[in-house]
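yo

u said u wanted the structure for the complex thing, so here. seqs first:
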Amino acid sequence: MRRTYKFLLLLYPRGHRDRFAEEMTGVFEEALAESRAEGWAWYVRFSFSEMAGLVAGATEAWLAQKPAPKPAPQAPSASSSYLPQEVRQAQQRVDANVAAMVHAIANHQFERARALSNQEREAREKFANPARQIQRRIWNALLAPGRGLGRKRPQQLFSVQRSGWRVFVFEENINVAA
Amino acid sequence: MRHVAHETPETKPLSEPVLLILTSLAEHPRHGYALIKDMELLSGGRVRMSTGTLFGALRRLLEDGWIERFEQEDTARQKQAYRLTTAGVRQLQLELERMKQLTRAGFARLRASEAI
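structre next:
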């Protein structure tokens, strides 16, 4: 009878079993001992009631289970959207490596897990300091020839003074100052 | 199908197992087997709940926050026991008030019909 009860407990969702199976078995054993003392007719009635209750309870527990939330797609978050493209790619590589590493460990493929761990460390180093990456980009942009600090200062061709207005004419644009 | 106006979780009538569990725990905290025995006593031997039904109801009550679980020191071993939360006490009071009102109305109508 105990074996049947424990077997039927397997019908319940894992969460319910983890939470209540031990306690349910304890309560069942107390009730079973009492029903035996009350005679065979009571024992048969008790057995049927318990088995039917378990099947109904398991069905209800499955129906009451909320579906697990689906993982959100890996879209760049608002906080990481400012990062340079190569940093975001490195971040994605790290995420993929970690997932593969977990899978390898779960399957006892420790050599593969170690190789993935090395790859993951290399990728992580690339975006270890996003501020440094951004700083390097800004400097490159400023010092690049033809842009920022590397840019040649536009030459003023001439300026025209009118009542209250002054017009500066440069090589590439015209500025008007009041 | 029942049609009840403005049925909210607070005003929704409780099922018999839930009402019996809450009533049993109103006295003092109890563990699983003690709950089964007390419910049998409360219902005059009419209700003898199976463990499947009992723990299904306990799970729902825990999820609703009407009862809470705690370790109770027993002479033989540690047992999980259950006690009412403030929300559980409130639900039980509401349900008993609802039943009292219904009982009064029912008896009043019976008396009126006998008087005719």
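Chain A touches chain B through 22 residues (CB under 8 Å). Chain A has six helices and three strands.
cya
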